[in-house]
Amino acid sequence: MYIPYGRQWIEDDDVKAVVDTLKSDYLTTGPKVKEFEQSFAEYTGAKYAVAVSSGTAALHCACHCAGIKKGDEVITTPITFAASANSILYCGGTPVFADIDPETYNIDTDKIESLITKKTKAILPVDFAGQPCDLEKIKKIAKKNGLIIIEDASHALGADYKKQKVGSISDITTFSFHPVKHITSGEGGMVTTNDEETYNRLKLFRSHGITRNREEMEKDEGEWYYEQIELGYNYRISDIHCALGISQLKKIEKFIQRRREIAKKYDEAFSSIEWFEIPKQKEGCNSSYHLYVIRLKNRDRKKVFDKLRNDGIGVNVHYLPVYKLPYYQKNGYKNVKCIEAEKLYNEMISIPIFPKMTNDEQEYVIERIMGSSNG
Fold first, then answer.
1. What percent of the chain has pLDDT over 70?
2. Given this model, what pLDDT does residue 372 score?
3. Domain range holding 61?
């Protein structure tokens, strides 16, 4: 038996949606892209959604369209996948790491204002493990200082913040559809916004900066004519990917409900264990549980990790603080220290949680974790 920490759930209707698209006239940028975008915007409550080739592409598009450039600073969290901070670097900006809240593992909003300088352009919070950040407080800080909020919600599709869906709250929000996420399109990502100008820039940037819009061009030589009006990338997504995304999105509530059921069962099973902590949910936040993280206390993390792996449980660690990665250490981050982030990294393990996980599989995980306390 091997139980991974995350896994996609593909059913016959998903397969049929992809096959139908393969038999259609469009494989690349066709009607399924637009349909996926419209369905996603409707689900999140955002005015606009732009589908791209990956979650990383979504972050790069977001940073570019927020106007991040050389000399700008963006305050973000160290407990995230490298793409969050890397996307700031892609635009020439400088990531500035704020420590985390030791209870939620999200960015500590009390640490943000002290890091704001004349160079600060944006705040890039990450909804770690599926729990939304304190978006209300972040919005107040951003408004006070004239900053843009780029929310990395790759872990938080379907999560609620004060009864509002993530994706409709921040200036720009990004999502990922990697197979371990809430829904998958194979690879893919989405950017949502309520601002029409940002929406138009996102569409331009994902397709080489090329337009066929007559109102944007300097001249018009005919129906074949197009112009490149800025430097963009090929971050387009295919109709094949979007067909799968559309089919998966129809089942998002079922997937999230199952994740919450699994998390609740873990909470109940582990609540009395003294040697580790379980995730804490803030009032007003309803996590969509991309990850379930346990935090070991006075235990050898590697020993527990190895024992669980040997038992066929695909535990993982999310994440090494970004500034500790060799690339960052070699490029100006050697003296950065976020105490709470480093404590968390040394104690945390992500355990399996995914919609297709069976009750028997979860019972096995619980039993093995309980047993690892003796190891």
1. 99
2. 77
3. 3-249
